[in-house]
């Protein structure tokens, strides 16, 4: 009975949010908060789906889900099949535009293309759990998509043993991008790329996403202000300011562009001590937040995070669209556990939600089952399983 | 017995502090807080000086102060006479580098050049009071210098009736710049220019100071955080950031430059409703503060001013070097008296000092004495004297 755990990280934008809309470079990194999936074959030609994070537990008969004939370029994805999507939406029948409906349709869309006769003959159970808050700009849907893609590709033998790692992650990335398209319509591809590859990337609208060479994993306190993000409102507000004062806003966007470039320079400097690197990275964090605040996308809750963390000598910035949502606080290596605890306590006293995490860790991975038999059991020992050396295979 | 009241405003930087160090345009305006001086002849060939704001009350014998022979270009100032300065410092004998010593030396330096035989034969009393806090970046020394220059020029007949207003203010400006040089060593000339001319000006290092055409007087709440400014420290910090990340900081300075340019555009737009003008001016205030904060020159106290005022829909920015000092909060015409009172109360509860004032009002002026007989008497009815139409003669 083949069964695999797959795992993939969320993402955070480190630098360049908003400016990226205007063709500037942005930098994103994989987040230590991850999603985990378990896929295992059944014997009754059914597909059991368990997504407790979106309150979905359901089983479909294998025969109810159409499967695609092989196409040119198989197993790489063909162009989006809109007719199939509509068909699947009807079959899945979970309403429209809800997270769980989109999640189920995305799964079925990949299933429809990737499931081999051998697996179709058996059926399988698929479950996902995530440590990522939904809708917080942390790439939870991409992380889900990468888990789905990795799980179905692996289960159906498309990630054959001995297959080149680059080819494996490329295949996962392409399919997770399909899943993202099902969920979002017109995703940028950043989130699934970061979730697949891990580390950090630099990207520019319409250009290839580039890994950030030499990026070192960094510790952060991630604070969810619990103030709902309003991405479209924030994007529109920046647009209005840009339309009113283009000569002022354009150089601000240029400055943000150069923050990503300076970040790249930092990590490519040979022999730069990590302590110095972290100090300078913190200064870039500070300046980027200032520029975002100057663009009008901060929020009193985000300024509160800055106020509290700066009192203890820590640098913070909003991440994502702003106007609420999350902030990142850099934890330099020399910051004591006590200091982190104090900051956390002060932030939580404001009603915020804090998680110590890292940015720049590994991307998607697979663990051939050995021990835990369910996602719930796995998650109850996540730290031990994940960090203490089970044989995760990352596509890196 | 000729006697004259003179009056001159302080200044605030509206936009462009710090960026001006890097050759960018800045905008400054005259402040509604003013200094007042009274000069009146005596009969005993003495000079009585009363500067209660710096605890100075003293009388010098006319014969103790050297007077300069006429020079080429009289009555426009000759090059600084360093030997005379040293001589005056000894005669004044109030120690070195204190505000009151510098103020007295500046007065005597102008006296030495401008006093005619006729006035020297009589002597005079000179007193100054100021509503401007000293050392808060509000141009108190320039305002003092302009009062001194105006008073001595007027008393000695250098501002003859019928003299062209442009020539009068030019003469006052040149002599007040001399006084500023005595006090500061190497002043920029902005402060005395704003104090002399009133309104608002734009300026760039090494270039001519230009009046901002069409500038309309604006209401502000001026908040002194009482956190001491550390101008040199802030300037050095920006320099460090600029040296570390020139490609990031340069476009930020460009953006600040364009804020002054956009401000100029606003006031030159024909038919722009004042309400719209004020809204857009407020946005520039917001963006400029953000950029200053991004440069690292804000302070928790200044952010507190922003937090409190923004809760009531008002836009604030630091003014001057930052790291403490003062903040300006724009009071749009539609803001109610109650709102202003609430903001003031909240700010004062933080230990800050608030003053409702305006920016862009008249510059230096003279009132031929008619009613009050001392500065103290005058100041006790300042509002009435100043606002209710005594016949101030401004050089505009």
TrEMBL record, chains A, B:
Domain called GHMP kinase C-terminal: residue spans: 277-335
Listed PANTHER family: MEVALONATE KINASE
ATP-binding is among the record's keywords: yes
Family indicated by similarity: Belongs to the GHMP kinase family. Mevalonate kinase subfamily.
Protein name, UniProt field: Mevalonate kinase
Pfam families linked: GHMP_kinases_C, GHMP_kinases_N
Biological process terms in GO annotation: ergosterol biosynthetic process; isopentenyl diphosphate biosynthetic process, mevalonate pathway
Subcellular location: Cytoplasm
Organism per entry: Podila minutissima
Enzyme Commission number(s) from the entry: 2.7.1.36
Keywords: ATP-binding, Cytoplasm, Kinase, Lipid biosynthesis, Lipid metabolism, Magnesium, Metal-binding, Nucleotide-binding, Steroid biosynthesis, Steroid metabolism, Sterol biosynthesis, Sterol metabolism, Transferase
């Amino acid at each position: 009975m083949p069964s695999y755990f797959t795992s993939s990280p969320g993402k955070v934008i480190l630098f360049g949010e908003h400016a990226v809309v205007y063709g500037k470079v942005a930098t994103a990194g994989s987040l230590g908060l991850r999603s985990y999936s378990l896929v295992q074959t059944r014997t009754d030609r059914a597909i059991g789906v368990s997504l407790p994070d979106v309150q979905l537990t359901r089983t479909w008969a294998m025969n109810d889900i159409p499967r695609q004939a092989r196409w040119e370029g198989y197993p790489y994805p063909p162009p989006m099949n809109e007719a199939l999507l509509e068909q699947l939406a009807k079959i899945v029948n979970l309403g429209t535009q809800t997270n769980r409906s989109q999640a189920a349709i995305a799964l079925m869309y990949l299933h429809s293309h990737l499931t081999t006769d051998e697996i179709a003959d058996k059926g399988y159970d698929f479950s996902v759990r995530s440590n990522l808050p939904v809708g917080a700009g942390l790439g939870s849907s991409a992380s889900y998509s990468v888990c789905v893609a990795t799980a179905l590709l692996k289960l159906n033998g498309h990630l054959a043993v001995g297959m080149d790692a680059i080819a494996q992650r490329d295949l996962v990335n392409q399919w997770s991008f399909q899943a993202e398209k099902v969920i979002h319509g017109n995703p940028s591809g950043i989130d699934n790329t970061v979730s697949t590859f891990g580390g950090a990337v630099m990207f520019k609208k319409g250009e290839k996403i580039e890994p950030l060479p030499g990026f070192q994993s960094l510790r952060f306190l991630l604070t969810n202000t619990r103030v709902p993000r309003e991405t479209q409102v924030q994007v529109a507000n920046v647009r209005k300011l840009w339309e009113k004062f283009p000569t002022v806003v354009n150089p601000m966007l240029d400055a943000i562009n150069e923050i990503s470039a300076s970040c790249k320079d930092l990590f490519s400097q040979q022999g730069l001590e990590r302590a110095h690197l972290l100090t300078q990275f913190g200064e870039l964090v500070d300046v980027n937040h200032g520029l975002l605040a100057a663009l009008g996308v901060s929020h009193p809750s985000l300024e509160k995070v800055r106020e509290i963390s700066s009192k203890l000598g820590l640098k913070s910035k909003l991440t994502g669209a702003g106007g609420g949502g999350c902030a990142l606080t850099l934890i330099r290596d020399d910051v004591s556990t006590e200091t982190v605890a104090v900051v956390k306590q002060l932030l939580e006293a404001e009603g915020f939600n804090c998680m110590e995490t890292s940015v720049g860790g590994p991307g998607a991975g697979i663990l051939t089952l050995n021990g835990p038999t369910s996602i719930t059991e796995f998650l109850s020992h996540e730290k031990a399983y994940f960090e203490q050396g089970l044989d995760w295979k990352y596509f890196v």
